[in-house]
Amino acid sequence: MNKLNCINDSQIVYDGKIRFPSLNNKTASIIGVKNDIKPHRILSHMFSRFKWNLSKPKLILSVIGGPRNFKMANSMKKAFKRGLIKASVSTDSWIITDGYSSGVSKLVGEAISENSHNTQVSNLVVIGISNSENVVYKEQLQELKTLDKSFSYDHQDVTKTCNDNYLDSNHTHFILFYGENTKNGNKLRGCLESELRKSETNLNISKKSNDFNLDKSVPMIQICVHGDFDTLCSIRQSLESRVPILVLAGSKGCADLIANALNQIEPNIPELVIESKILDRKIQFYDKMLHDACDCLKTILSFKDLDLINIFRLEDEEDSQDIESAILRAFLDSQKGKHFDNLRLATQWNRIDIAKNNILIGEEEFTSDQLSKLLEIALIDNKPEFVQLFLENGANLNNFLTNGRLYYLYNSESIHEEFKRTPIFYVFRDIFGLKNSNFFISFKKLRTFFKQYIFEDSDFKFFPFDIDLLFETNTDEQQQQLKNHLDETFSKDNKDDLGMSGFDQKWLNKSVEKNLELNLFIWALVFKRIDIAKIFWRIGEYQMANALIAATLYENLSLKLQNNIELKNISNDFLEMALGVLHSLEISSKEDVNFEYLEQNISHYGLDCLKIAVLGNQKKFVASSCVQNLLNEKWYGCVVPNDGIDTLLKVFYILIVW
Q1: Which PANTHER family match (predicted)?
Q2: What percent of the chain has pLDDT over 70?
């Protein structure tokens, strides 16, 4: 066990799993801690690979409000649940509640349960954070300290008091506070959420993707549904920490109190608090709590000009799409003027609509480095719409594609995790003896792969050459060091720190210069990112040749993998693209121009289109009228043969086979 990432035993009450018999024995992780524990120690437990092993979230949706049995129109409940799920899935966010099977937390649990058939929903992280004071089985749960198996958390096994709450079975993790002064669980939860938002580079956070840097804070939005006095206090605490709030007006309670107060020029605060009924007149110390509630509301209203408070009125079930957008805009509105940060978030959330409609509105300016970083994220995270968007908005490939960045695209940790699931990995593994971990894809290996697996006669000169000389004298260990160095450098946006012992910083920072679109086209083909490949195919040169190369690659992969239908369809798609280019030439050009195009030697391949088609066994292309006319002309001596006699023989061999 890594002691640096575990909580001291004296601060743990228990740590284990609970099982819900009422939900097919679904399990959830749970930890009980003392209420004076430092929040960052809990986070160490959450991110440690020896414990919960969570990945850092892209967004936190903190849902607060509705106490036990709060009333809300069914149509509004449905709209809220659908909107919450859409926002969570589209951004891969965490949802945090108090974890109870009552109030708004139960509503969140129902949203998860109703969509559990969706794999993306079932993979969401839903964390309940609260005090243990009113949790059913709070004493029995302490047996987990010594229990080697999960604790059976049955919702029917015990007689509970009116103040006790069951834990909701649709949550994936629970954090319960024990000890004196735990009644204000919302405050403890707020402190933990605040710590989670901070940069925590010292934690053992697994980098499963390029989409969030360890030195970046986690964006968070607090969503208020209904709510009572404690909710009001939580909102004040969040606003003081500059957390944006989305208030669902129409859900009554605290939510309507804030919405009504903001809607008035000079609100009568005491009157509004009383009318909201967030306080029971029968409670002890009513006058003091009324005074505290008024002070709390005054503080909240003082933030109205900072774009931190967002009011959204839920009318009916049709508003689910609007609430999804409202949740995301709530955070972006709190960062007005931070165009790069907001566009980066929209990219990570995969929300092209927000990027186009709310960020790229003509007021923003981006540096070349910023656009390069955004393009890099879109490429690695396989988001073709954003790749197209950034290219249209000024991303310069000359500035973007350096030797170091091209290496990073082939060797980032997240890319390799995905590469192991692609067909080409199995071919690479056979040729180079790759292991399932800690391998390095060099340009030399790529060139060897294409020569051995596609065309031996091709040179594939578009890959950079200098690195080959570099790697002839370096060991596998040094290559792995460079991989780790590039991964760390680009994930932290520190491109000026590319130099390291044994490697040439100037070379790593040098632009690839030639064949930029082709290099990115080939990169996308290797990792089976077809939509991205087509983007660079469209803006690049030699479209016919490149489409034939892609068709041949995927045809061979299909055969290698026992006639894989998906790969065969991709091959056919690229073949049709090549034929489309040929057809457009037939319409717009003279016949002799077409012949020249087919026989034009493409220097970075060392082949012409006709040879590529023949060597790739692309029979449909060879059978096209333009190619057949060229062969007839050659046969009857109307066109002077080039040095491709072998090609012609192979062509006629193919025709005989037909």
Answers
A1: TRANSIENT RECEPTOR POTENTIAL CATION CHANNEL SUBFAMILY M MEMBER-LIKE 2, TRANSIENT RECEPTOR POTENTIAL CATION CHANNEL, SUBFAMILY M, MEMBER 6
A2: 83
Q: How many domains does one find in the chain?
A: 4
- The phi and psi torsions of 585 (rounded to 5 degrees) equal -70, -40
Domain co-membership, 518 together with 614 = no
Which H/E stretch holds residue 173?
strand 173-178
Residue 108 CA: distances (Å) to CA of 163, 169, 190: 20, 11, 19
Alpha-carbon span 277 to 249, nearest angstrom: 15
Same domain, 293 and 380: no
In a shared domain, residues 123 and 272: yes
Place of tokens 């396989």: 382
Strands 151-152 and 94-97: unpaired
- Do 518 and 488 fall into the same domain? yes
Q: Which domain holds residue 496?
A: 401-526
Sequence-separated (6 or more) residues with CB below 8 Å from residue 527: 415, 418, 419, 422, 424
| Domain co-membership, 97 together with 165 | yes
List, for residues 393-452, the tens digit of each pLDDT value.
999 999 999 988 999 999 888 888 888 888 788 888 888 877 666 788 888 888 888 888
Q: Encode pLDDT of 227-240 as tens digits.
A: 999 999 999 999 99
Residues in the chain: 658
Q: Are residues 604 and 483 in the same domain?
A: no
- Do 36 and 110 reside in the same domain of the chain? yes
Query: Distance between CA 419 and CA 24 in Å, rounded?
Result: 35
Residue 498: the pLDDT is: 47
**Structure confidence at residue 202 (pLDDT):** 44
For residue 545, give every residue at least 6 positions away whose Cβ sits within 8 Å of its Cβ, in sequence order, or none: 602, 605, 607, 608, 609, 612
How far from the centroid of its chain's Cα atoms is residue 312's Cα?
Answer: 26
Q: How far apart are the first and last CA of the chain?
A: 65
Q: Of 278, 313, 348, which residue constitutes the final position of a domain?
A: 313
Integer angstrom CA distances of residue 234 from 54, 88, 313: 25, 22, 21
Give the global pTM. 0.81
Both tokens assigned to 392: 């249209």
